[in-house]
Write a structure and sequence with these properties.
The protein is α+β, with helices and mostly antiparallel strands. The protein is about 35% helix and about 20% strand. Helix 3 packs parallel to helix 5 and helix 8 packs antiparallel against helix 9.
């Protein structure tokens, strides 16, 4: 890896020659600006405001703009004469526990490489001292024209340095938290804890930039002349008032499902998630008409009995009238039974006709 800065670590009276190497790299995809009419690239040119002429890099210097707009030129020689002890030195000023460093101060990360064979011994000494103390070193160094704050710690067998923002560069949190008082119930906290436990830990090496991969696929497709199909975007539900408890419960179920858990849950618990659906065979099979015809027959017989009871004469009538009425009743009963059977046959035949159709 190419070094971006050469200097030394000042560790008391010990000086450790080192090279500064970038520990991170940016994989973001960069775009160029083009003229839509002809695809020509748009470039920015450095033009002097006074004579409106384009100038080269060798003709450009630095200046500080005063409050009234006056430009005060500052040369590299002026900056080089400043008393800056950290110009070529990473000066360790203290050793503190790692949890005393506010993560908000974290900036760029670098690897410190021993510069030459003589640097191996003191480099190893500092590395092992940091390991055994379980502390980090706070240091000051100068890079790209300004003095910075840094934190040294051990990564594997290498001393790494994190650039830190100065404490006065961290903004206060006033006005960021919600204005209204919000009460969180214990049930909501319990569900949040359950969701945290279900999600558990993650292998950081397995995480990747999905958006960057999608952009790379888009570029490859357009370069090969393929048609780009728009992807369906999921509704994130932003701005909607939701039931927090229901959302947490759904999140827990979804997390368990993604991890292959919750397979032993009862059918009652999963009934609202997995409704039972009829198979195609069950949908195509016609219903039997026997239950309907049986119910129709019972209804017809019951009606016939009621009709017979209404037509039967009272006991106070004469014997002649009784025998005559009895024969009439028997005749009526036969007719009613005959009509009942014919009605039943007709009603029974109708469902069969529908079933055959």
């Amino acid at each position: 890896m190419r070094s971006i800065w050469n200097g030394a670590i000042s560790f008391g009276l010990v000086s450790i020659p080192i090279k500064l190497v970038n520990a991170t790299e940016n994989h973001a995809i960069h775009f160029r600006q083009i003229h839509l009419a002809d695809g020509g690239r748009i470039r920015y040119r450095k033009v002097c405001e006074l004579d409106e002429e384009e100038v080269s890099g060798g003709e450009i210097g630095k200046a500080y703009e005063d409050a009234d707009g006056t430009m005060i030129p500052i040369t590299d020689e002026d900056l080089a004469q400043l008393p800056l002890p950290t110009a070529k030195t990473i000066e360790i000023v203290a050793f503190v526990p790692a949890d005393e460093i506010d993560p908000l101060q974290m900036d760029a990360a670098y690897y410190l490489s021993a510069n030459g064979v003589p640097a191996a011994k003191p480099y190893t000494l500092l590395r092992e001292a940091l390991k055994r103390s379980n502390k980090v070193a706070v240091a000051k160094y100068a890079l790209r024209g300004r003095e910075r704050l840094g934190m040294l710690r051990v990564v594997d067998d290498v001393i790494a340095m994190h650039g830190l923002l100065w404490p006065d560069e961290i903004r206060a949190t006033e006005g960021v938290a919600p204005d209204s008082d919000v009460t969180v119930r214990d049930a909501e906290l319990d569900l949040a804890d359950a969701l945290m436990d279900t999600l558990g830990e993650v292998d950081m090496d397995s995480l990747h930039d999905d958006y960057r991969e999608a952009v790379e696929e888009l570029i490859a497709a357009k370069a090969s002349g393929e048609a780009v199909q728009p992807s369906e975007s999921e509704d994130s539900g932003g701005g909607k008032v939701i039931d927090l408890i229901a959302a947490l419960e759904s999140s827990v179920r979804a997390a368990k499902k993604s991890r292959g858990e919750g397979e032993g849950e009862s059918e009652e618990d999963m009934a609202d998630v997995h409704p039972i659906k009829k198979s195609a065979q069950q949908k195509s099979t016609p219903r039997k008409s026997t239950p309907k015809s049986t119910g129709t027959k019972k209804s017809t017989v019951s009606t016939a009995k009621k009709t017979t009871q209404k037509k039967t004469p009272s006991k106070s009538a004469s014997s002649a009238s009784s025998s005559k009425g009895s024969s009439s009743a028997n005749s009526a009963k036969k007719q009613t039974s005959s009509g009942s059977r014919s009605t039943t046959k007709k009603k029974t035949a109708a469902p069969r006709k529908r079933a055959s159709a």
